[in-house]
Specification:
Layout (H helix, E strand, L loop, with lengths): L6 H9 L7 E5 L12 E2 L9 E2 L3 E4 L6 E9 L13 E5 L11 E4 L4 E3 L2 E4 L9 E2 L10 E3 L7 H9 L4 E5 L3 E7 L3 E2 L10 E2 L2 H11 L3 E8 L3 H13 L4 E5 L10 H7 L6 E2 L3 E2 L5 E5 L2 E6 L3 H20 L9 E5 L10 E11 L2 E6 L8 H6 L2 E5 L11 E6 L3
Parallel strand pairs: 5-6, 13-16, 13-17, 14-15, 17-21, 19-23, 22-24
Antiparallel strand pairs: 1-12, 2-11, 3-10, 4-6, 4-7, 5-9, 8-9, 18-20, 20-21, 22-26, 23-24, 23-25, 25-26
Helix pairs in contact: 1-6, 3-6, 4-5
Length: 400
């Protein structure tokens, strides 16, 4: 099979020239999974004042042990306006500001209240149970750097620093088109020789998980004019990526090469030295990158995992998944490989502290049920020799 492109080179071509998309400002509550385009500097200090970390009494450590007069109360959102002076204390609650003059908090369990007096029989150290102003962060601090991938914890920090909106890279806009007269939408009654389309829905889910916004273009019949119309529509509506499923092989009804030519472009590649997924193609249609995936469901999914997902990460500004593979050991023997990189669907388990990947006995690229049960792909390089159970291998999780 001369002319097959190695997987690594194909991925390099898919990612070539792909740069993080422009900036947009979004509400802080919606930034999970997005990448910051600027440093986020805190607009306030946290806590804003010295705060109590316990329910109890604000006191002067020099007055203890002893009996103190309770002169007021400090609660979160309702601070005590006066000051603690010699022989006095203020009832205080967790999260409340420490009154002026106090330098320690006595836990309520260590104090005995009697009317307007409180007795403390042990001494305390200055600073006990006080969270100092700015303990968490201070005004002007860069709390989150440009390039940070936001998650729920970092979202909480951005909000606490008083950011109502945050600057992030725009989500990639991905158009998804299925091709083939044999396809019908889920929920309809397939006619003779027809099958239910599942690739587009799986691809849309991959796009969402990778941070993109999918647009479903439906099913195009095996006619050049109609397929070309859908492709041009995706280009004209400003999509960053077009993913097609089917039509990328060499059959009489595989039209994607004709579509690319009609758009005045040339394939960046076609035919990859991999299994499943050999008939994969790429082309740039103006600013829109086209990935033509195979029609076989497993091949489509594997190609999307290996090529589409990294492309969307790159466009989203993510740099956290440059090498998503892991080390594992084989759960069964595997035979020698040919000139194509193999991607064996496998289950994962942990035995004696080791991650064990066990490939399914049947690896046909049309078997969606096996794909649904799989946890990972075992990556077998070209010309890999036979390997026994327990041998080391590299895996790529299907749900990272």
């Amino acid at each position: 099979m001369a002319g097959l492109l190695p997987v690594a080179e194909a991925l390099a071509r898919v990612l070539a020239g792909a740069a993080p998309l422009p900036e947009e400002w979004i509400p802080v509550g919606t930034c999970d999974g997005r990448v910051l385009t600027r440093d986020l500097v805190s607009g306030r200090s946290q806590p804003p004042d010295d705060m109590s970390s316990m329910d109890g009494y604000a006191v002067r450590s020099a007055d203890l042990p002893g009996v103190l007069s309770v002169i007021g109360e400090s609660a979160a959102g309702r601070s005590f306006a006066g000051a603690v002076t010699a022989g006095t204390a203020v009832r205080i609650f967790t999260g409340a500001p420490v009154p002026a003059g106090a330098d320690a908090i006595v836990m309520q369990e260590e104090a005995r209240r009697d009317g307007d007096e409180v007795a403390v029989t042990t001494g305390v150290s200055a600073g006990q149970f006080i969270r100092r102003r700015g303990l968490d962060f201070t005004e002007g601090l860069t709390g989150l750097a440009s390039g940070t991938l936001m998650n729920p914890r970092r979202l909480a920090l951005a909000a606490a620093m008083n950011h109502a909106t945050v600057p992030v890279h725009r989500r990639p806009r991905v158009a998804i088109l299925s091709t083939g007269d044999e396809l019908v939408e889920p929920g309809t009654a397939p006619g003779p020789d027809q099958i239910v389309s599942s690739n587009a829905l799986a691809l849309a889910a991959i796009v969402r998980r990778a941070g993109g916004e999918p647009t479903m273009l439906g099913i195009a019949p095996d006619r050049l004019a109609e397929t070309l119309s859908r492709v041009r529509g995706a280009r004209e509506t400003g999509h960053d990526v077009l993913v097609t499923s089917g039509g990328a092989s060499v059959g009489e009804y595989d039209l994607m090469r004709e579509v690319i030519a009609a758009e005045g472009a040339a394939p960046g590649f076609w035919k990859i030295a991999m299994r499943p997924g050999k008939p994969l193609m790429m082309a740039d249609l103006g600013p829109m990158r086209l990935l033509g995936l195979p029609g076989n469901p497993v091949a489509s999914f594997v190609c999307a995992t290996l090529f589409l997902r990294p492309l969307l990460f790159r466009l989203s500004g993510r740099s956290d998944a440059d090498d998503p593979t892991e080390e594992a050991v084989l759960g069964t023997d595997v035979g020698p490989n040919d000139l194509r990189a193999d991607h064996l669907r496998a289950t994962l388990a942990t035995r004696d502290g080791q991650l064990v990947a066990t490939p399914f006995a049947v690896q046909d690229s049309s078997m969606i049920r096996v794909l649904a049960e799989a946890d990972a792909l075992i990556l077998r390089p070209p010309h890999a020799p036979a390997a026994a159970a327990g041998s080391p291998c590299r895996i790529l999780r299907l749900d990272p």
